[in-house]
Amino acid sequence: MEPGAVFRDYNCRISSIDFNKNSSYMVTASDDDSIRLYDVATDI
């Protein structure tokens, strides 16, 4: 099995990840209290 994406813009552990079921957006949260929104159709 190969990873589908590597999140290089994080310095801490990703603690949560979720996808929007009606679009191509994904949101992540990490231990440094940051939240990031990705358009998985273009960003990854």
UniProtKB/TrEMBL annotation:
<dbReference type="InterPro" id="IPR036322">
    <property type="entry name" value="WD40_repeat_dom_sf"/>
</dbReference>
<dbReference type="GO" id="GO:0005634">
    <property type="term" value="C:nucleus"/>
</dbReference>
<dbReference type="Pfam" id="PF00400">
    <property type="entry name" value="WD40"/>
</dbReference>
<dbReference type="InterPro" id="IPR037867">
    <property type="entry name" value="Swd2/WDR82"/>
</dbReference>
<keyword id="KW-0539">Nucleus</keyword>
<keyword id="KW-0677">Repeat</keyword>
<keyword id="KW-0853">WD repeat</keyword>
<protein>
    <submittedName>
        <fullName>BnaC06g14650D protein</fullName>
    </submittedName>
</protein>
<dbReference type="GO" id="GO:0016070">
    <property type="term" value="P:RNA metabolic process"/>
</dbReference>
<dbReference type="InterPro" id="IPR001680">
    <property type="entry name" value="WD40_rpt"/>
</dbReference>
<feature type="repeat" description="WD">
    <location>
        <begin position="7"/>
        <end position="44"/>
    </location>
</feature>
<comment type="similarity">
    <text>Belongs to the WD repeat SWD2 family.</text>
</comment>
<dbReference type="InterPro" id="IPR015943">
    <property type="entry name" value="WD40/YVTN_repeat-like_dom_sf"/>
</dbReference>
